[in-house]
Write a structure and sequence with these properties.
This protein is of the alpha/beta class. The protein contains 16 helices and seven strands. It binds tryptophan (TRP).
Length: about 375
């Protein structure tokens, strides 16, 4: 059996809207008017869907009553695709005032044979955590943990692993197969721990009553569906105040137009890429929506929807709505050439990477505050 969305797959999502509809994910756009300062990714439709995010917005109003929970796979270089999630986490912490629960999915990564445990831990800290801090994540109101080591507090650790263990009774092999397609013992274990990741912020040992929201990529929706079902089946053992909500973002295109993949350095811009080499990388690899010749480009104009440089500006590097509109219109009309468009991105990237890498050095001093 083949599941339509596979959290462990390598395929690119083609038609987000169709998939969302099929699985009951609601469009994000109608909620925008309820958010005072929506994040750029929300405003521009990169966060495109949700389950019950209205409930999150209700709880944002009641201070201290919600948590944002999400996890990361320590799978390699931290790149622009990962930055999208980091920004949302920081937005929940700094703008909406949520308590942050951030987990390193080392049990999951280990079971999927991504690496040795020590390597995974090193990647999690040196790639992910350092970049999160440099992007603005603060230690206050942030509970950062590893799936393999939930807490030094024994009551908390017991409560977490007990929940993971008990969750298994609330699903069946058939259900898991229907959701995930092919499964293995390692996947079953990872899924049960992920269910605990998502639900445990609501337990008394972790501060008790609160609503949980999980920002994720579309490929993680199978976990959300299963977790919500399991939570609703715990009617006696656990009483959760609400089902966890979720929001879904589109993936950022890889440089060459396909998927951004940690295993191919020319498919991404890493946040540790040398700013001096970025010009060459963009010039050489960034997929262009421009035409074959200048004459043809002037006549027919470029195609921003497929142009990777435009997409990076739109999603992350040109926050000014007027400016991005002008770039878009000039590209479509043929006034702006591909080389000129790339030039705009290159300048933004050079500056961003230089600043970011300085902050990343400073972040090293703060790491210990997150690894209590
Ligand atoms: N499975 C997620 C991934 O592949 C990582 C993860 C682990 C996670 N626990 C989580 C995501 C809890 C959201 C919530 O990236």
């Amino acid at each position: 059996m083949k599941a339509e969305i596979n959290p462990w797959g390598t395929e690119d999502v083609k038609d987000y809207e169709k998939l969302a509809k099929e699985f009951g994910i609601k469009p994000f756009e109608p909620l925008l008017k309820r958010i005072k300062e929506p994040h750029l990714l929300m405003r521009r439709g990169l966060v495109f869907g949700h389950r019950d995010f209205g409930k999150t917005l209700d709880s944002v109003k009641r201070k201290g009553s919600y948590a944002m929970m999400t996890g990361l796979m320590p799978s390699g270089k931290f790149h622009l695709g990962h930055k999208i999630l980091a920004e949302q986490i920081i937005y929940h912490q700094q703008v909406l005032g949520g308590k942050i629960f951030l987990c390193v999915a080392d049990i999951e990564a280990y079971n999927l044979r991504l690496n040795r445990m020590e390597e995974l831990r090193k990647t999690a800290v040196e790639e992910y955590l350092l970049n999160y801090i440099a992007l603005g994540l603060k230690p206050k109101n942030c509970d950062f943990y590893f799936q393999s080591e939930r807490s030094k507090d024994p009551d908390q650790a017991n409560a977490f692993y007990k929940l993971a263990g008990m969750a298994a009774r609330k699903t069946t092999f058939n259900e898991m197969r229907a959701i995930y397609g092919e499964i293995s013992p390692g996947k079953v274990m990872s899924v049960m721990i992920q269910v605990a990741d998502i639900l445990h912020p609501m337990l008394p040992e972790f501060g008790g009553f609160k609503h949980v929201v999980v920002p994720v990529g579309m490929d993680q929706d199978p976990h959300m569906r299963l977790t919500r079902d399991i939570a609703s089946r715990f009617d006696r053992e656990y009483k959760f105040p609400s089902l966890p909500s979720s929001t879904y973002h589109r993936f950022i295109k890889g440089l060459k137009g396909g998927k951004m993949s940690s295993s191919d350095p020319f498919s991404y811009v890493a946040l540790t890429d040398d700013p001096k080499g970025i010009r060459n990388k963009i010039m050489k690899y960034a997929f262009s929506g421009g035409r074959e010749t200048i004459a043809e480009h002037r006549k027919k104009g470029g195609i921003p929807e497929v142009d990777v440089s435009y997409q990076y500006l739109y999603s992350q590097f040109e926050p000014d709505d007027r400016k991005i509109r002008t770039i878009h219109d000039d590209y479509i009309s043929g006034k702006l050439l591909t080389g000129e468009l790339k030039q705009i991105l290159i300048e933004k990237l050079e500056k961003f990477l230089t600043d970011h890498q300085r902050k990343r050095e400073e972040a090293k001093k703060q790491v210990d505050k997150f690894l209590k």
